[in-house]
Amino acid sequence: MIIRFATQQLEDWFVGDYQGKQPFSEAVLRAYQKTIRKLDAAGSLAILR
């Protein structure tokens, strides 16, 4: 599945490019990154269901 980020900031959080102070704890950012990786690994929306 192709992931498109709505903002550059969301993509930066995914790749770990934080500018300035981190907006969330490391645990929250890791969970966000894990979720994006799961979406990326899914071949289609049907798989996610």
Brief synopsis:
The protein has 49 residues and is mainly α.
Structure overview:
This protein has 49 residues and is mainly alpha-helical. It has one domain (8-48). The protein contains three helices and no strands. The radius of gyration is 12 Å and the shape is elongated. The model has no long low-confidence stretch (mean pLDDT 87).
Global mean pLDDT: 87
Number of spatially distinct domains: 1
Cα distance, first to last residue? Answer: 14 Å
Measured by DSSP, the beta-strand proportion falls in under 5%
Number of helices: 3
Gross morphology is elongated
Provide the helix percentage.
Answer: 55-70%
| Contiguous uncertain segments of 5+ residues | none
Which structural class fits the helix and strand makeup? Answer: mainly alpha
Largest sheet: none
Question: If you compute it from the alpha carbons, what radius of gyration comes out, rounded to the nearest whole angstrom?
Answer: 12 Å
Features:
mainly alpha; 49 residues
SSE arrangement:
Blueprint: H1 8-15, H2 26-41, H3 45-48
